[in-house]
Write a structure and sequence with these properties.
With 262 residues, the chain is mainly β. The chain is globular and about 55 Å long. It has no helices and 17 strands. Strands 10, 12, 13, 14 and 16 form a five-stranded antiparallel β-sheet that branches. It starts with a strand and ends with a strand.
């Protein structure tokens, strides 16, 4: 391998004290970790109102877009992201600088997700030659049903659960599907410490749906990991959730991919 790409995402949040005032504007700098360069492939947002404008640049004022554009021209939603025609590289220790200008005339909460991959010189493990692969899913369910793995997420509280990759194969995760009762954030970790996202992500930015909607279910529009997330034999995947709804919250997560045998 001349280069190893590991799926990752960075989040910009215009929320709380950083929320946009009515017709106001704000710039946020998203710091890129020291450990790896980052390539942006897709753009997603979640907002009280999508009627805002956006400008994107890096720390060196290299423009990611040619001017100020309506957010709806550049950012898709969690189920239908905006896909860049090529990867945009942001160097390690640099920043993604996102400037948001409200045009809704009301206070506006905005979350922007920059989806892509970290770039490393080599994989962190030796990858064996594969003999064959078969599709497979792993389930991590937080709820009140007898078949759930863990209890519901408490109101305004947090919950954590884990599942282990089977001992006879590697697992290559291609998509995430999430169903939830209400708003929550999620973080996934490999063996409890290697984060899949730079910070916890609102589940709707990852295409989450409720349990009863026939159209636009998470399975129809799953969150894609590109490239796929490769997990060795017996890896533990930890799921951390935090409720944002002030009520008991059921959240069920499916990881879909390939079991790879060697």
């Amino acid at each position: 391998f001349s280069m190893w790409r590991d799926p990752y995402a960075y989040l910009a949040e215009f929320t709380g004290a950083l929320a946009l005032a009515a017709n106001g504007e704000r710039t946020i700098g998203v710091n890129i970790d020291r450990e790896a360069d980052f390539e942006i492939y897709r753009l997603v947002h979640l907002a009280t109102s999508v009627n805002y404008r956006v400008a994107l640049a890096d720390q060196d004022d290299r423009l990611l877009i040619g001017g100020i554009a309506p957010a709806s021209n550049l950012f898709g939603d969690g189920q239908r992201p905006f896909r860049l025609p090529g990867a945009r590289l942001i160097k390690r220790t640099n920043q993604i600088r996102t400037r948001a200008l409200d045009r809704s005339g009301a206070p506006n909460t905005v979350r922007q997700l920059f989806i892509g991959a970290q770039i490393f010189p080599a994989p962190p493990f030796v990858i064996p030659p594969w003999r064959f692969a078969e599709p497979y899913t792993l389930e991590v369910n937080f709820g009140a049903e007898a078949t759930d793995d863990f209890a519901q997420v408490p109101a305004n509280g947090s919950a954590e659960g884990s599942i282990r990759i089977p001992g006879d194969s590697w697992f290559e995760v291609h998509t995430l599907q999430i169903s939830r009762t209400a708003a929550a954030t999620i973080q996934l970790l490999t063996n409890g410490f290697r984060e899949w996202f730079r910070s916890p992500i609102h589940v709707d930015l990852l295409g989450a749906s409720d349990f009863t909607t026939a159209l636009n279910s998470s399975a129809q529009w799953p969150y894609e990991l590109r490239p796929a997330k490769l997990l060795p034999v017996n890896t533990a995947v930890v799921v951390r959730l935090a409720d944002l709804s002030a009520a008991l919250n059921s959240v069920r997560v499916t990881l879909t991919g390939l079991r790879r045998y060697y």
